[in-house]
Structure formats: C-alpha cells, structure tokens
Amino acid sequence: MDFSYDRRTLELRERLEEFMDRHVYPAEPVLAAQLADPARPRWEIPPVVADLRVEARKQGLWNLFLPGEHGAGLTNLQYAPLAEITGRSPHLAPPALNCAAPDTGNMELLAEFGTAEQRERWLEPLLDARIRSAFAMTEPEVASSDAANIATRIVRDGDEYVVDGRKWYISGAMNPDCRLLIVMGKTDPAAEPHRQQSMVLVPREAPGVTVRRGMTVFGYDDADHGGHAEVTFEDVRVPAGNLIGEEGAGFAIAQARLGPGRIHHCMRAIGIAERALELTCRRVLDRTAFGGPLADQGVIQDWIAESRVRIEQLRLLVLKTAWLMDTVGNRGAHTEIQAIKIATPRTVEWILDKAVQAHGAAGVSQDTPLAALWAFNRTIRIADGPDEVHKRSLARRELRRHR
Amino acid sequence: MDFSYDRRTLELRERLEEFMDRHVYPAEPVLAAQLADPARPRWEIPPVVADLRVEARKQGLWNLFLPGEHGAGLTNLQYAPLAEITGRSPHLAPPALNCAAPDTGNMELLAEFGTAEQRERWLEPLLDARIRSAFAMTEPEVASSDAANIATRIVRDGDEYVVDGRKWYISGAMNPDCRLLIVMGKTDPAAEPHRQQSMVLVPREAPGVTVRRGMTVFGYDDADHGGHAEVTFEDVRVPAGNLIGEEGAGFAIAQARLGPGRIHHCMRAIGIAERALELTCRRVLDRTAFGGPLADQGVIQDWIAESRVRIEQLRLLVLKTAWLMDTVGNRGAHTEIQAIKIATPRTVEWILDKAVQAHGAAGVSQDTPLAALWAFNRTIRIADGPDEVHKRSLARRELRRHR
Amino acid sequence: MDFSYDRRTLELRERLEEFMDRHVYPAEPVLAAQLADPARPRWEIPPVVADLRVEARKQGLWNLFLPGEHGAGLTNLQYAPLAEITGRSPHLAPPALNCAAPDTGNMELLAEFGTAEQRERWLEPLLDARIRSAFAMTEPEVASSDAANIATRIVRDGDEYVVDGRKWYISGAMNPDCRLLIVMGKTDPAAEPHRQQSMVLVPREAPGVTVRRGMTVFGYDDADHGGHAEVTFEDVRVPAGNLIGEEGAGFAIAQARLGPGRIHHCMRAIGIAERALELTCRRVLDRTAFGGPLADQGVIQDWIAESRVRIEQLRLLVLKTAWLMDTVGNRGAHTEIQAIKIATPRTVEWILDKAVQAHGAAGVSQDTPLAALWAFNRTIRIADGPDEVHKRSLARRELRRHR
Amino acid sequence: MDFSYDRRTLELRERLEEFMDRHVYPAEPVLAAQLADPARPRWEIPPVVADLRVEARKQGLWNLFLPGEHGAGLTNLQYAPLAEITGRSPHLAPPALNCAAPDTGNMELLAEFGTAEQRERWLEPLLDARIRSAFAMTEPEVASSDAANIATRIVRDGDEYVVDGRKWYISGAMNPDCRLLIVMGKTDPAAEPHRQQSMVLVPREAPGVTVRRGMTVFGYDDADHGGHAEVTFEDVRVPAGNLIGEEGAGFAIAQARLGPGRIHHCMRAIGIAERALELTCRRVLDRTAFGGPLADQGVIQDWIAESRVRIEQLRLLVLKTAWLMDTVGNRGAHTEIQAIKIATPRTVEWILDKAVQAHGAAGVSQDTPLAALWAFNRTIRIADGPDEVHKRSLARRELRRHR
C-alpha cells in the first residue's frame, strides 16, 4: 500500500492549485451572477464555464480523469488528489477540466466498450467538450436499485433497435448541448437477471425522444450543469450499430462504468468537505456571540475536530481504493469501492450539516455554497444504488468468509 | 398533567379533518401546477390559497391559533392537535386557516402589545387576511442569536423614529400583499444588553425600505408563502406612535412572541413527521426490489419503528408544554419550550431523511413533498436561536438546581 | 390522557422520598461495605436489605407494584412515579419494598394464574419476602427471542411432569433464599408455535435441579440480588398440580407477565437516569480543569441539556403507557409497551455514558454507581426480547395500518 | 505515504499468526479456568501467561514493541500489524510477548530517559519480564486531564526526594511482581504550568507506599494483568538519583511516553474489533430465529457492513500515524496521534456493542470475550486524556491554520 504522490501528480497538483486560485475561485461569483440573470436561457451552460475550459486546456489540465490513450492517462491514485482539489469548487472546476459527471463515465464507457465508429462519432466531440452526453438508467416507476426491475424495452427490429420507456433524473440532459443519451433497457426479459439488459446510444434528436421536464434536487434545478431530465422514449429507432458491446451485456457494462464513477464522486466529495471545514473555521473565527468568537465555543470546536478526524479517515480509504483499483483492478477492489460509496456521502453530509449550522441563515442560503453542496451530496446516498443495497452486498461478502 | 382532548377540540378536529380530506389534500396538485406555471407573477400567493381561505372561513376554521377575543380563543392544548393536522399539508393548510407564520406571531404581538390604533390599522386586516406581514429581526452581518449583536438602529427624531439597517430572511416579505414589517433594532446601545432593543411598525411602502432579493432555503425560494426577503432600511421614518410597547422593550416582546411561535412550529412539525411516515409506509408496501416489497426489508422496518417511537415521545413533550403554557404561563414553561425547540426539528429531520431514502430519487424531487419539507424543517434548527444556544441555556438552568 | 398524580400517589411519593432520604441513600455505603467484605457468604443477600425491608413494611411501603387484593392495589399510573423514585437507588430501594424483579413478575403471575394451592404455597411467602423466586426462560443453546426455539422439555408422566433442559441468566437463583423456579419448556413440540410451551413450578431443591454457576454481566456477578444462575434440569419431577394455567398456555402467560415487568423496568430506569444526571451536575460543578469548572465547558453543557430533554420525553411515554394499560389493558397498550422497551434502555444508556465520561476514572469504578447501572441497563436491550425483535414487530403493526 | 509491509514485517506476522493459532487461542480457556479457580491467589498473574512467555521468547517474538537496541528495533509501521494481531487476544498475547501496557511505556521511558544505572536496575529485568512495573499519574481528587491539577508532591530533601500523594487506577500495581512505580508529582508548583511536574522511580516496597485496593472497571478487577490499584504515598523517600530526566521535565516526558502508548493501544484495538466482527459473523450464521439464520436479517447485515467499513478507515488512519511517527517523529504526528486516540475507542466500542447485541445474553457474559473487551475499550475514551480534551486541542490547531 503505497499512497505517495509521484512526481507527475505533484506537478499537476501544483498546476491545478494555481488554476483554482487564479481562475476558478474568482469565477464563482461570476457563475452566481450569470445564474441569477433572469434573461439567461434557463438550461444553457453559463458562459463562464466555457471560458474556464479554454484556460484549463491551455494549462494541460484536460481530461485528467481518463486513463489510457484517449485521456491524460493517469492512474486512479494519480487522479485522486487532483479530483479532490476540483471538488473544492464542484460546480466549476470539474466541468472546466472536462472532468464532470456524467460525461466522464460516458467517455470511459465509449473508450472501453465503444466500436471505432462509436468512438469517432461520440467520444471525440465529448473529449473536446464540443457536445455533452447523459446516461439514462433510473426509472420513475420502479425501484431502480434492482436492475431486474428495469421496464424500458430495447427490441431488435431488423437493422434497428426500438426503444420504449420512461427515465428520469437523467443528469445533464436538459442542456441543449447534450446530444447523446446512453440508454439502458431490456433486450431479453426472459434471460437470467443480469443478462436481460443492453445499452444503446440514442441521439437526443431521434424521433420519439421527449425531454419532458427538469427534476429538482431539494429545490435546485442544477441548471448550471444541465439539470436532471425526465425523458420518454416512444418507438425510438436507432441503427443496430448503436448497441454498446453485445446484447445482454448492459448490466456488466453499467457495473464497469460505475466503479470509476463512484471513486471520482468520492474524491471530489472530500474536496467538498475540506472546503466546508475551511469556510466553517473562517466563519467561527469571524463571528462573535455572547462575549467571544464562535470559535471559542466547545460544541463548535467539537464539530471542527470531528470533521478533521472524519475527513482523514475517509481520504485514506479512498486512496487505498484507488491504489487497489490500479493494482488489482476494479473487480478486486469491489468491497472497497462499496465501502467508499457507503462512507463518503454520509461523512460529508455530517460535515456539511455542521458547516450550515455554524453559518446560521447564510448556511441555507445562496450566499454560501453549503446548502447546494449538501443537496448534491445527499443524492449520492441514493444515486447509483442506495446505501442499504451496498451494505447488504458488503455484509454478505463478509459473512461468506466465515461460512 | 391532563392532555385529554375536550369536546371543543374533538369537534374542531373532526371538522378540520374533513376540511383536509375534502379541500386541502385535493388542492396540493393544484398548488404544484400553479407554482410550476412560468406565467405566474413569481412572488404572488397562488390563487388556490385564497380559494381555500374562503372555504375555511365558511367552516369556522379561522384564526384558530389566536387566544383571546380576537381569535378562536383556544388554549394551547386545544390548538395543538389542530395545528398538528395542518402540518400534514404545511404549504396549504396553515395559510388556508390564517394560521401561518409569520403572520400568526405578528397578530399575537399586536393583540398583546399593540395600541388600539395599531390594532385597528394592522391587526384587523391581518385577522381578515386582507394583508400579510413580516417580522424583521435577523441580520446578515452578525450572529443574530445574540440580541446584543443587532446592528439596526432605531433613533428617535422628534415625532418620528428613524430606522437604518439591513435584515434578511424576512419571511413573507417578497409577497406583494405583505404591507407591514415589524422591525427590531437598537434604540439605546448604551443600555443594559436586554434593554437596548425596541420594535417599530414599518409600512412596507415607507420611503427608504428596499426589498432587495429573495433568499433561498436549500434551493427553494418559498414563493408560495412570500419567500424570504433581504431588506434594507435607509433613513426610514415612521411616526413615534409606531413603536410597539415602550423603548427598550424589544427584547422582552420578542421573547414573548417566540414562545407560542415555537410551539406552533413544533405542533405542525409533528404533522409533517406523520405525513412522512405515512408516505413511507405506502411507498415501501408498493415498491419491490430483490424479490419482495421494500416493506419486508429489516432496515426499512427499523426506520418505521424508530419513526413511530420518536414521534410518540415528541408529541407528548409538545402536549405537556402546551398544557404547561396554559396552566403556568409561557415563562413557567420556559424549559419545556426550549426542550421542544431542541427536540422537534432534529427528530422530524431524521424521519424525513429516512422517508427520502425510502423514496429514492422521488424523495429529493418535486414529485413528493419530502424534500421541501426537509429543507423547511432544517431551518428550524437555526431560526429563532440555533439549537446550541437553547441547549446552553437549558443546561445552565439544570446546573443551577444543583449549585 | 390524564397523567396527573392523584392524592394517594402524592401521599405515597412523599412517604417514599422520606424513606429514601432517611434510610436508603444512607444504606448505600453500608451495602458497598457488606459486599466488599471477603468473609461474607458470596451469594447471600447482604443484611442491610433485610433491615430496610423491616423499615419499609413499617412505613406501609410494601408490595406497591402489585395491583389487586394481594398487593397495594395501585394502578400503573399510580405506581409509575413511585417506581421511578426507587430506581434512583436500584440496588436497594426495590428489594427493600419487595418490588424487585424477578419476584415481582413471579408474584403477578401467581396472583393472576396460580391456583389457590399454588398461591398459598408460593405467593404468600413471596409477598412476605420470606422466600425468593426465579423465572427460568432463557437458554444458552438457542436464540431465546424466538419462543419456538425453546429446547427444554416438560413431559407429562402420570401424575407428574418431567423437566429436562438447560437455562441460564436465571436472575436471583444463586441466592440460597430462592426456593422456587418457574420454568418454561415445551409440552407439545408438534402444536402450533405459540401453543407448544407450558410453565411449571419447580422447587429449587427438587432432585435433578443443579445450580451450576453465576453468570456475569460485564464483570458484575450481581451477588447482592441473587446473581444470574446457569441451571440444569435433569429428569426433574414435579406433581402435575405444579403446572401454571393449562398445557400450551406458557407463551401467553409469559407475554402477560412481561407487560408489567417491562413498564416497571422502564419506570425505574428513568430514576436511574435522573440519578445519573444529578451526579453529573454535581461533579462538573465541583471539578476544575483548564481554568474553570467542567460545568462551564460547552460540550458538557450539551450533555446535560440533552439528558434533560431525553428524560422528559421518555417519562411522558412511560406515563402514557401506564395510563393506557390502566384504561385499555395490556393488550391495548401493546405498541406503547414495545415503544418504551425500545426507547428506554438506549436513552438511559446514553445518559449513563455521558455521566461516566464526566466522572472520568471514577465513572467506571466501584466508587460511583454509574458503571454498575450502565451494565445493568445495557442488558435490558437484550433481555426480554432484543430491541430488534420489538422494532420489527412494531414496524409490522405500523405497516398494517397502510395496507 | 507508503504503508506496505516489508519483508521483516511479513515474516514476523507469519510467525506471530502461527504462535496465535498454536499457543494463544488454545490458552484462552486455560486462562479462564485459572481465573475462575477460587484457590488462586487473587492478584498473581495466572501461570498460563508465564508458559506463553517462554514459548514466545523461543520464537523470537519478544519485546517487539521496543525500537532501538534494547528491543526488537521495529519501526511503528512494522510493529502496527503485529500489535493488531496480538489485540485479537488482548489478555494473553501482549503479555506473552512482553508487549503489554503499562510495562511497554515504562520500558520506553527508561530506555529513552533513564540513566545507565536506572536502566540496569529496572529496564533489564523488565525486558526479561522478571519484574513488572506501573505508572502512577492519575489522582482521585482532581481532574487529571489537566496536568496543572496534580496534587502529589515530590520535594527535594538533601539527597532524597520525598513523595506524598494519592494515586489510583495504577494499572498492574496489584500484581505482587510489580516492583517499580513511576510516579508523577509536582516539584515546583510555582513554575510555569508544564514545568511544575517531575517523575521519580519509587520501588513498591519503599516505606510509606501503601497499595490500598483494586479499582474495578465495569465490574472487572482485571486481576489477570495486575488490576488497577489505589496507592498512597506518605513521606516516601527515594534517592535523588531516582529522578527521571531533570526536575520540571515530568510533563514533557509523560507526553513523550504517551505517543507510542496511544498508537499501541489503537493498533491492538483494531485487533479487538476484528475479533468481535469474526465472532459476530460466526454467531449469526449459526443461530436461527423466526425461520432463518440471524445472518439473513437486514439489521444484522447492516451492523456487519458498518463494522467492516469503519475498521478499514480506522486501520488506515493508524497506519498513516505510524508512518508519520517513523518519518517526521512523534511531535510531527501530534494531530494524527490525537485523531486515532479520538477515533479508535469509539469505533471499536460501536462494533463491540453490536457484537454483544448479536450474541444476546452470551455477549454480556464471561463465556465470550466481548463484555470484558467492551469494558476495557470503554476506559480508553477516558484514560490518557478524555476524548473531549483531545478534540479541543485538535480543533484549536485546525483553527490556527485559518487565523
């Protein structure tokens, strides 16, 4: 277990921190102003993001998330501390670096499972940030944590696949630049449970695709990163060549996509926690009540100490998981990936809750990033399998060792 | 300690439940549709509320919160179970019955401390719901939990008071029907800490009053009940007769206002918790994953049992507090009022969190009331004194018994 | 819901508090000295208990727990505040008043289900505290929370029942004065699950009964109240007339016995919590560190406030349950009895944990009652059905309302 | 950050695991039998420990804790996984390897700060396990977490120091083999707070030393490892050469002693947690209730998953701390040492609590190690500075970064 940062990581970290200081943090109030402008087309990505992208690319801070020839070629352990830094400004830094979900997962998926043709048509413009994409798995009508519940059908009809179904919380899909939907559905409901699903590439403009509305997350529409769409697919036809991998491989591909996605989320979430703790420390040093700074109050000191102790433990678990993924592969790191999926959002939620409390009314407002970060982080306890599903699975593996 | 519901309470409860079933619950989707209509003037109260008011008044379900001659004359113990019922649909039922904060607290204040003239000008239209009002205490620049921090100045100048300051989270003040701001500020910064503050009535249209923006609560602007305004007061002049009570009495009046306000919040919050638990039960009976209804999963049963056990304890504490307020007065019930202020929001938060989790993506969305209720409830841990201030005060009283 | 204390309760409470002050609290160091005496026969009840019994009886503070003609005839609501007071010195006050488990439950059982002959032989000396008794249900080999698991056999053989099995944690049975074991076993393993069990009265001196050892509870042997015995029954023969009720009624009788037993435990546990909080307050006012009394530290104030808020809620739930048992019967109060069984031990555990922490090393030692109370209270989360079983049952009932 | 185990660690780990399997685990029931023997002199170390020592020494598993020439010369990172393994049987393995507190800390102290003469007289027999020692810091009369409170006086009188004071919870000192007490007291109450204390070596047989009684820990007297003594020092005279270091250095030496002591505790505690989790898994696979093994119940699976996730995070933090101590020294690892002191006992407590609950009555009994481990682990939240003191200190350091 060697978590040391190598030379390349240290060099990139320095460059990234400078980029944050010079470009990203100063852009935060610009983003807020652009979002508050009532004249802005609601679902377009605010222009400040495009400006940052130009700058990031110039600095060589681009596609850092993507291993292999298509991206920066970093290992998980190299990427981890960089992702954490971007998490400190999660609305701006990840998209600025072309390292934001769901495009990251979709690019990984295309890079790993896409045909040459699929990669040329979709992966290249995504790598260039010329288009955006979405991943359509969750459905409103069923408990989507169980893949066997998926109701969307993908039926082969000659040279085409026909897609019918209803999806929601399709993040990014409200953004008019989102051109591609990767859709999960059932091609063979009679197969064994994990061979029923397949994945197809559906252009957003395909007839039968209707983006119906933006779903909200604790009141936020997340318009700055493409919202979360409810989308219906009615007799949508795509060429057979739009299938990813083979029929019946949908579940396996989804699992493969989720491993790196989960760890990226967790890395960034640690950055969120560090930012929250920093804001809290500054706030309580600054504000005074009942005869002294809030920082002198024992209960607030308790929050700060707890936050630090929890962050340290969390970061180490994420680093170990990254190291394991690099050394034994995603499958070998399965337990650890579940562990960080369980541990991260709740730890960060606790820290954000205390940060909100320490900020008083400002903490729930639009004047600090805390409430929006809380809402975003809260969804991670549900998204991509609720905690309870992961804990059950992890427990069963633990029990198996003692049978 | 007798918490039995008397005949009048039972009769009102029956009438109110019928009103909920026939009018309020069916109005919930109507409210959602009206709020989602982009053509609607953003800060106006949706028309469905006015319709409900007409009906509620017809049913004699009006101003139930207000003791004494001006209102329904109920005791706290009589009002408690009724307020709980309104909490089941907290965006509609309390305003429908003219029992919603902050107007309730303001009406109590005017009824108790207002002059005949003040009552005639402001209390009567409020009792009729012809106008709305707001209470301006919290300030963005200071830790407002300590009244000694208040920076707004109220300076006597001849026959007038001159108000200068900045307030925020002035709930209801975005609503154009809000005509009155009750403003807390310092008249004598040199007096002893709790005699420095005074309260004046400021018409919203007074020159120098600027309603600057709506503050958000975890992404919600709460436009359906008048939002939460940031308001500046620059050289605002009101007649000396607009003072409430006497100079220096502001802190004491605020405290008097807060007791009933707190218990009303807590009563309604129990209704919120009951609603959340009911929605959870229905959901988990309905949804299936991994071979059975979610309701069969041990962890979910644990949440349900915990929710029930916590609600029961909470309701009893609120009822005892109501009974104490009725029998020994608000001052005698001080410890208990603090106890429910501490215990209620966090208990309800826990229950809402589990309800969200059991609902998956729907739980954070606009399609169930859970996320909005969570956000509202979360603010109660901050509003009107954060938990930490109340706990410190309660602990000191406990310690005093053993000195 | 009327929890007011009536005249009789108030009168008994006053008398009991005087008894505590004059006799019980001063006896605590006497008990400690008697227990520490290496010459004392290990399992005999320390003589100070007998002395207190004489005094309690003289004061009319005797058998307060027992409703009906055989006891004091109090309702649950009348007994609740008295039991709470005895909980403040739980090693001395309950036995002093002949109100200690397991004799209380056994006396209730004999009073309700015993024949005249059984009552004469066993109930009368128990009511007089001339003998002690034990209740033998839990078994070491099985998960005893599921009555279907009971392995002990009770087989009819002519005019006798033959008992074979192994029981443990038979509280009180190490005490040589314990003359009676009420044994639960299966008479008909082929019957439906809740009709398989029966109960018989087994004199401790019956051939084949072997009291093997005292089980410990976190290091305590609880020798002062008869310990917790492991007992084997090998071909033990008792007359057929020793059956309680009828064959197959064992489960139902056990359930009937447990309702009042649970609420008595909970009532006393609140007394434990109050005592712990009182000791904590005194300690933190007295001890100084880092420039001031511990009582000035925010975290400790937080514990104190939390303790008070939690105790208040808990007591109300127990009172409501007592009132329900009195008005609608134990069966009608089933949910509430489970609720207090769930809520009480964990709440009291939390309070005791903080009390221990506030006392430092003294908190875990024999010099304060805290550690022993913690250990005793911890067992209540397991005894008489672990929390998890009760929560599951309570959740199912809640869910049933929404089917 | 490289936590990899090197060749030496791997080789020692293998040897230690074999020693555990062949000698230690089989000795656990032997220890239990020897402790239960009423004929055994109460405070002598059970003979099975001596037998194990012989074997451990033969295997080269001796004094592994001690860096430098006097011991095995392992780094903290090398020792960490070994200490964890010994924690799996914490009553036997650490003393078997001569790696048990408080002797370890005392040997470190003598190795680092002792004169040649002190080392010859005391360190050598300790390294050989011919004698045992104790560390006398905590006092019953004051909050010992604040070193400024220490009341014991050490007064220079000619060629001697005169010691007067009362100490308690002097672990190991009930053991007749304990020959040495390292005593902390004040030599100069007028000096600045952290220069008032000194440390002297006091032979247990020195006139004026009275070992008064064994203190208990949740009912356990811990006789198997020398108990916890209350000791008084009345006009105890030792030669001036018995001073450790210089006058006024007591606080600094104590701090130096505590760093490694804390991490050793934490390493072993992780072994305790692993053992508890293993016992739980086996138990719930074995026991059946309500139609299936306990292992199938969702709540129990939740405990198992949580335990695993928490252990992983904890171990990484301890390893990082060990690595830091090795690379930047104990002072540079100060924050991390506090963090593990805060995080470890509570995490292990949670896991033990669930293990107890999963075991039912057996969990609180003498038939599983769980209750005794719980009690021991609980004291770590108090010993060597309560959590609250460490959190306050850690928070202040965190805040300092943002001033």
UniProtKB/TrEMBL annotation, chains A, B, C, D:
Pfam families on file: Acyl-CoA_dh_1, Acyl-CoA_dh_M, Acyl-CoA_dh_N
Domain Acyl-CoA dehydrogenase/oxidase N-terminal: 11-128
Key word Oxidoreductase present: yes
Keyword Oxidoreductase on entry: yes
Residue stretches making up the Acyl-CoA oxidase/dehydrogenase middle domain: 134-236
Cofactors (names): FAD
Keywords: FAD, Flavoprotein, Oxidoreductase
Residue ranges occupied by any Acyl-CoA dehydrogenase/oxidase C-terminal domain in the UniProt entry: 248-397
Transmembrane segments: none
InterPro entries: Acyl-CoA_dehydrogenase (IPR050741), Acyl-CoA_Oxase/DH_mid-dom (IPR006091), Acyl-CoA_Oxase/DH_mid-dom_sf (IPR046373), AcylCo_DH-like_C (IPR036250), AcylCo_DH/oxidase_C (IPR009075), AcylCoA_DH/ox_N (IPR013786), AcylCoA_DH/ox_N_sf (IPR037069), AcylCoA_DH/oxidase_NM_dom_sf (IPR009100)
Family per similarity comment: Belongs to the acyl-CoA dehydrogenase family.
Subunit-structure text: Homodimer.
Name of the protein described by the UniProt record: Acyl-CoA dehydrogenase family protein
